[in-house]
Amino acid sequence: MKLLKIAALACALVVPMTGTVAADASAFPVKNPVLTKNALYDSGPLAATTCTELPVEAWDRGKVQAYLDEVFRCLENTWEPQLKKAGLPYEPVKVRYVKRMPKKYCGSSTSDEESQAWYCDWDRTVSLQLGKSWLAYPDDLFLFNLASQMYAYHVMKLAGLYDAGEELRAGSKAENYEQSRRAYLQSDCLGAVFMQSVWPIKGRTTADWETVVRMAGGDEPGEEPWYGKRATIQSWMRAGFRTGDPGSCNTWAAPSSKVA
């Protein structure tokens, strides 16, 4: 069971990269058509809609939760018709706010970060622990993007991508890492696809979006490569935002060089 999470400011985002024919080969090709040829990819760009940000204030937990609830409402309104258009099932995500994540949640160990967001596929719930790092600066676009990314995991679950990814078997640690990165990078890209569908957001500029992209964290040297390098994350993020189309988020068919 791969529990999907965002802890602290470790958000991720993405865009296609260039490479030679040799570099573009996939070291560990994924053959499951549910992952590589999913109906979601052929559903076309998300319909343009409007999502109004509610006012927030630093340290006002109630307003921050109301802000996030409104973003999740926008996400439901946008993704429901898209999933149905693709002939995929739909059900709303559950959202809950907790003071402290338990040490064990949804079959996995959580982190000790003060701010955390997790998606559990067992009950299709996004759980958010709003700590100081998120409550101190709630008025940038980070929280909006956070909600978009977390909902992307729910989209992946409904589209069958989540379960198909879970069922993959890896012949080596390197292959296991790459499969993990493909899943995380897909959520980064799909989150950005939604962002494009509601762009422009009143009071926001492209600079606000680029700030979110620059904030994207990635695997650092010496760390286990579960999420992707920062440049890779930012690349997929920009791809999703540029097109607004889930078809640009097919990380499962991408060559290894683009999910490093």
From TrEMBL:
**Keywords attached to this entry:** Hydrolase, Metalloprotease, Protease, Signal
Which BP terms does GO give this entry?
proteolysis
According to the UniProt entry, its GO molecular function terms are: metallopeptidase activity
Signal sequence: where?
1-22
Top-level taxonomic group: Bacteria
> What name does the UniProt record give this protein?
Similar to metalloprotease
Organism listed in the record:
Nonomuraea gerenzanensis
